[in-house]
Amino acid sequence: MSLARAIATVGGWTMGSRVLGFVRDMFIAGFLGAGQVSDVFFVALQFPNIFRRLFAEGAFNAAFVPLFARELTAHGREAAREFAERVFGIMLVILIALTFVVEIFMAEVMLVVAGGFADDPEKFNLAVDFARLTFPYLLFVSLAAMLAGILNTLERFVAAAAAPILLNLVLISALIAVALGWVPDPGRALSWGVLIAGIGQFIWLAIACGRAGLLPRVPRLVMGPRVRRLFVLMGPGILGAGVYQINVLIGVRLASELPEGSVSFLYFADRVNQLPLGVVGAAVGVALLPLLSRQLRAGETDLARDSQNRAIEFAMLLTVPAAAALLVIAQPVITVLFARGAFDAIDAAATAGALSAFALGLPAYVLIKALAPGFFAREDTATPVKIAAAALVLNVAVALALMPWLAHVGIALATALSAWFNASLLALFLYRRGLLDPDKRLLERLVRIMLAAAIMAAGLWLGAWLLDGLLLRSDLPGVCALVVLVAAGVVIYGVSAQLLRATSLSEMRGMLRRTAPPGDA
Prior knowledge:
0% strand, disordered C terminus
């Protein structure tokens, strides 16, 4: 399967999962609002997710997939299965031990993760109870990540890409059970749902691996040089991911010190902000790294610089208007998506403030995805990690400075500012090393993109003013009004970008073709 088709497959299922995730969050907002139970549940959900992202997905798969593919290609399916069984066995022991220890000391761990809850014993104890239900999710989803790596190596992308949808379906089903009166406690139902979803994802991928003929049969507690190599390769990935996840943990920890609902406001705002970030950022990172690596190995330094410039141009073309739109219509977006049931207008306004702050950093988040491959393709993993660590320190300092005046919005704004600091340093280091050379086209296009986005923002502001009454509703007319407003914004930006020559349809098609290198995924 070509890389372009692989990206389309994974991207399509990811988009489906994100849309279903919005439906899930709409249900959660309607049932829980933004208060004690929602704050506690989101901390309980975030906790295993941070460990999953830190160990199981990015860092693990980045190390496991190449080694597994090498075994499969060089020594055949049985050797690859044996390698997978050894990895499975070691991971199983580590994960069971980690889960056991954390379950025992969950109260102490929660003091670190959400110490602000300790001032309210009822809230703190509820957080401990929910986290004890959700944390074993880490065990099952981490093993599922390994099975997904096997399937991706075999170019069977659908099962792995579809697995996250199970979490959304189970959580939606849990809330439907609450609505039908089958379960009395929505927070506990959601927490049980997280655990059940983890088991379901593992079973789903185990069946898919079995059908592919490469399901690890008997876990083997044998380290060996190949497995040791795996964990050595995971080190830089874990370190890099760890900086970001520590950032997330610090945000949760600081929000727990703020008035009730603050954790929920940040969660819902970040969910909306993650949609353009996840789609555009992931696409740029996936396409650019192998392209730069090939060009640099071939000695095509000038082409590599051009690819870097075009990646930045492409990323900003899609991200700047998204950021401008979220800044202008944050309130209608949050109101229409979430303001129903227990999630009232005050909650919507507080969440919209956080979304606007997050949106200020959206182009920077994606720029990081476009700039970091410039280091990784040259086998420099240390510099981005050091820069991310400096950005982490800045994030904490700014958040602590802004929280007394801006509360949870200060945390979101600090995250945005630290992202711009991160992106700026990456660009500066690349430029000083002669690895980044912004050409005239890139500089001119950036100005034109910002002008087109400003025109679109003005149009959205006028449209939001005209549709003000409808956009304060979360029923069907409100949804239709928001869809019309967003569609109008897309048209205004598209036309403005063409007239200002920020891009053209032929250039867009050409960039998309160049990001899809030949060969297998």
